[in-house]
Amino acid sequence: MVCLLQVDLLAHRWRYPTVTIHGIEGAFSDPGTKTVIPAKVTAKFSIRQVPDMDPAMVKKQVTDYLHSVFAKRKSLNKLKVTMVIGAKPWLADTQHPLYEAGKIAIKRVFDMDADLIREGGTIPIARTFQDVLGKSIIMMPIGGFDDGMHSQNEKMSRYNYIEGTKLFISYLNEVSQIQKTSV
């Protein structure tokens, strides 16, 4: 049972679309009471897309849904939905020689096999790089689960910095051994 729950949890983290609320501007958030209703409130959220999702279609579906829910409230207020970034999802070819080089480098530096997971939702440029350059893309994050990525208290441990540097050196050494025709 526990194993199935872990698989389900990881599948939701790595494989399925997610919605993340990043903040609400205009609403009173300090301690204490506040009786003034703000004239304008802005909510910011993102949707991590997965392969076979189209950003334009997602925007339409989300906008239509939010407008339908808002219409049911019969409010005199206005709702405006905008999409700042709409990037196509990216999925790597983990059989590509660059990934084989990465696996070898990880084994050499950390003495463990690489975990090939589907995470990287905040890097929308990956698919664009791959499409425009016509080259395979690899991501080898060196941060820890507790680094607080993109937060006010974002950090990287000294260990991860040093070992990550070793990883990139080892990786580049492995890439140099790949035949030019396969990259």
UniProtKB/TrEMBL annotation:
For this record, an example GO cellular component is: cytosol
User: Taking every annotated instance into account, which residue ranges of this chain make up the domain Peptidase M20 dimerisation?
Assistant: 12-70
**Which domain of life, per UniProt?**
Eukaryota
Region forming the signal peptide = none
Q: Which UniProt keywords are present, listed alphabetically?
A: Hydrolase, Metal-binding, Protease
Gene Ontology MF terms in the entry:
dipeptidase activity; metal ion binding
Matching InterPro entries, A to Z? Cyt/Met_Dipeptidase (IPR051458), Peptidase_M20_dimer (IPR011650)
Q: Which GO terms describe its biological process?
A: proteolysis
Name this polypeptide is given: Cytosolic non-specific dipeptidase-like
